[in-house]
Amino acid sequence: MTRLENEEATSNTNTGTEDILTHASAEPYKVPHCTYTYKFKEALPGATAAADADIEPPWTVEKKLAKLHLQPQTHSSSPVPFFHLLERLKTTKRAGWERFHIHHGESISDHMYRMSLLTMFAPPSLASRLDIPHCTKMALVHDMAESIVGDITPIDGIEKEEKSRRESISMDYLCGSLLGNVWGGMTGNDLRQIWQEYEDGQTLEAKYVHDIDKMELILQMLEYEKRYNGGINLIEFTWVAKRINLPEVRAWCDEVLDDREQFWKRLGTTSKDVSHTGAIVRSEEYYGNGTA
Fold first, then answer.
1. pLDDT digits (tens, 9 = 90+) for 253-285
2. Helix, strand, coil percent values for the chain (each to nearest 5)
3. Whole-prediction pTM value?
4. Which of 35, 55, 121, 245 could be cross-linked to 269 through a Cys-Cys bond (beta carbons 3.0 to 4.6 Å apart)?
5. What is the CA radius of gyration of the chain?
6. In Å, what is the CA distance from 48 to each residue of 69, 72, 92, 160, 247?
7. What dihedral angle (degrees, nearest 10) is formed by the CA atoms of 275, 221, 19, 29?
8. Alpha-carbon distance 216 to 181, whole Å?
9. Interhelix angle 204-227/186-200, nearest 10 degrees
10. Which residues of 271-287 are buried (b: 16+ CB within 10 A; e: fewer)?
11. Is the dihedral of CA 65, 68, 74, 79 positive or negative?
């Protein structure tokens, strides 16, 4: 499948750029300035669902680790087995971008690292009400379960409740089976509590980090569009902007979206509103319209 199967060119079609999105580059590709009408087709299940398709229900941590040919030493007094498992956060790609053939995109660790830095830039009006170091730690922990589960997206066909169950038992494994005997389990318990606080989304710190999570996605969306010089349209992901709750983060988001609008205008085209496509409807149903 090529990029051209997800879109149709309405003018100046260049047939020599079909595989443009299969290569990584620090420099933007020089795509001709074309006007595209994008057809956002119903996407196939993502990499996580496909990889887990042959795991006999119910999904368990042990079954997933066996499939990955991983056997971390459990109940050790050393954190080294945990350190090794964290490597999967560096090598596992964020799955949402792969539907658009961005196969060499950001990893889960890439996403969490920038999030952790963003948390440090809360404006004074907000920072005075936050425990910023706690927020930074939360940003580094919030997707840790994906080292085992993988990056499950709304199109994977996995129910929200099942996703939550998998992530919860994965955190129990990481923080209990791997870290439970490390220095009395104190660090493991701390990580588990921080993750749960993020999942519950009730504290101001959790709400802030949830907003930062969306803000980081919006940044990455525009950066990919610019990297490929308008050869790919990721407007499908802009739906998360309306779920940013804190005005301070919303101001950052508005700045990025304004930049995006000007970027598409400079290309001599507009970014079509696809806010009611099936993928977005499923995303809103999957995550709801609240904080979490």
1. 999 999 999 999 999 987 664 444 445 444 555
2. 60, 5, 40
3. 0.81
4. 35
5. 20
6. 16, 21, 10, 14, 34
7. 130
8. 35
9. 80
10. beebeebebbebbeebb
11. negative
